[in-house]
Structures are given as C-alpha cells and as structure tokens.
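Hi R.,

Quick one: here's the phosphoserine transaminase sequence you asked about.
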Amino acid sequence: MTDAPETATLAAPKPSLKPARPEFSSGPCAKRPGWTAEAVAARAFLGRSHRAAKPKAQLKDAIERTARVLGVPADYRVGIVPASDTGAFEMAMWSMLGARPVDMLVWESFGQGWATDATKQLKLDDCRIVSAGYGELPDLAQARKDADVCFTWNGTTSGARVANGDWIADDRTGLTLCDATSAAFAQDLPWDKLDVTTFSWQKAMGGEGAHGILILSPRAVERLETYTPPRPLPKIFRLTKGGKLIEGIFAGETINTPSMLCVADAIDALDWMEAIGGLDATRARADANFAAVQAWVDTTPWVENLVAAPAARSNTSVCLSIVDPAIAGLDEAAQRDFVKALTKLLEGEGVAYDIGGYRDAPPGLRIWCGTTVDTSDVKALLPWLDWAFATARA
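And here's the predicted structure, written out as tokens:
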C-alpha cells in the first residue's frame, strides 16, 4: 500500500471490463481455461464399477499422471483416498502418530484443526503446539528432528506459506506430515523433506471435492509397517493389512467407491497441465497472478497483504486486510459487515465470487490466484475492487 492521509477522498469509477471467469474462490477453485463438462463426461466411466478393468486403469492413470506432473520420486507411493485433503491428513495422523514426540506447527485454521485432533482426539503424549497468528509463521527452528512434525505448507486461510524446506533436518528421525492442499502444483515441494504429503483435487487442479491425494515416502511406509497405533482405525483410515502396506490403494484400488466423473475431471486437469508445460508452467501461472495482485496492493492505500514478510506470502490463497482507517477502526463485527457489503457488490456485478476472508480469519478479502486462474482475469478484477470499496465506504 501507499501512505495516504486519513482524510483522503476515495473515489473509483465503475469499470467496464469484467473478468471472463469470476471464480476466485479458494476451494473449490476455478476450472482450468477451456474446461467443459461435456469433455469430462465423455471420458468418464459413468454407471461402471470402479473395480472393472477400464475404470481401474483410469484410476491408476490419474495416480501416475499426478506423480509425473509433480515430480514425485519413483520410490514414493501416491494414492487416491476418501474425504478430500481432510481425509488424507487425518488418515495419516491416526495411522502414524504416537510412535514419537509430535510437534504441531500452527498458523491458520486448518493447522489448528490438526493440532486440536492431536491433543483432544488422539490425546498424544509429548505433543507440542508451536503457533503464530494469522499472517505470520511460527518459529520453524523449534521443530525437533526426533519428533513427527505436522504442518500446512501454505496456509489457505491466512495466506502465509513456508518459503522452502531448509528448516527440516536432513538427518531427522521423525516424519514430516505436510498438508499441501493449496501448495501442490503452484509451489515448490522438496520431496526429500516430506514424508507424508496430502492435497485435494479441488484446489490448484480446479477439480471437485470429496477425494484426497496421499503421498508417502519410504520412511512413511516403514512407519506404517512397523508401528501399530494404540487406537481403533475405521475402515477408511486403514492403510495396512497384516503389518504390510495395502499396495492396491496406490495402484487404483481405492478404499471406497470414488466418483468416476471426478476422476475424469482430475485427468482432464492433469492433461491441461502437461500440455502447457508441466510443473514449471503451473507454478509460473500462480506466480504471475499473485504478482498482479501484489503490484496493485503496493499502490493502493486502503488495502494490505495480511502477511507482512514478502517471502512468506502465498501465491495462491492471497489474503488481504482492509487498512483504511475508517474501516480498520470499526469493531470486528462491523468490519465483517463491511466485507460482506463489498463482496456482495462484486457478486452482484458478476465480477468476483466467494472472495470474503475465511470465517475464522481476520476480516478481509481472500483471492485465489492458483494455477487455473488467468492473469488477465486477475488484472480485470482489481479496478472492481477499488470501485466496490469506494461504493461500500460511501
């Protein structure tokens, strides 16, 4: 933002150019450019058993394409599991935690949810919570190399991400469990530092909800095969049988029935990603979208990135604070009402849907800038933000 007197008069003309695609939700996210339901339906095995040869082969194809686009090492396992990213991460926690001390690194609502489950549901011994407020990162150096460390790579609800994995010890004896749901395909994930990685199709892929991706390192597989958790596991959390990994899960034999329409949709997104140049291209698109928003923020007096440290700013779930004194000086309820009025104006004009901040986050805006969003649409949105702010404030 730029400095401006508190008495500055804010006015903005109503723009004429609208985003071609106004979907800026942080999940489910925008479909890839050129997406059509007809193209997805044409390749989906609808009305077929997912255990039949061709549907099962398609599930395996989705797994293999995911690994290829993300550059997952050949000795890692990739599987499709129930219940989106939440199911994948909970599955890992319930199956693996308890063998060692645990450090929960928390800086937004989903990380707080994992910490709550670790302490109140799993009731783990020697479980530390290392936390920071929205827009900040905790002291990552506190992570113990002999502990299992659980964290979100990119805070979807706070817009704060870890810049890299340098803080994760190469000689760690504990596992790292990483919720990468809003980082996958948009940020660099150092696989040698990650033992369990989870995400869902509904974020950077622009896919549908209800399905999760679980990626396991050889060290994670070893934990599963050598550690028996002191708790009952429901069927959808079970990754081993007779002390051995259920390899079928990582070859297209899903634990429960998947939506083959969603599977076809995921493959459609992966096809597009490979066609535009793979991981380098998908990350570059997110970077360009974020750069457009941040350049506008840097010259706009009423708004600021919620994350003060540039290196920690997300390039996908970009969270913004309204810092205009007339609004920032209101109580929290009134600030939230203002954000609702602003976003209602945008939705009414058909230029931006679902960009209010997350319900547990500070009042503000959250604009999804992930891979499937076009930079031209981001740039078209920005004048509308100025217009909506001035209109709601008047």
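Residues 3-9 have pLDDT under 50 and may be disordered.

Cheers,
M.
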